[in-house]
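<amino_acid_chain>
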Amino acid sequence: MRVEIRHTADCPNWEQAGRMVRQALIATGHPDVEIGSREIRTPQDAENFPYAGSPTLVLDGVDIFPGAERIVDLACRLYATPNGLAGLPTLDQLTNAIAARRRVDRG
């Protein structure tokens, strides 16, 4: 399993996303999973990698919050949370998304 945070340099949420991903991985029983990051610097980068704004959280190459439209703009992403739109999902949403993605992968 590999997690990657795809982000732009100007988006302030990507570093906090990394901390939250670590907490969610621990909560789902995957404390040793590597978390990488990939800076999306150009529209070409955004075309080459699944990207729906910064930060896009990817597990084994798949956005763990599907349904967002892929973009080539170097923009921040908004997530629908119980408290409204936010720059990051909640920790519960993130933990549930990782757990759900792992169930799909196991088939």
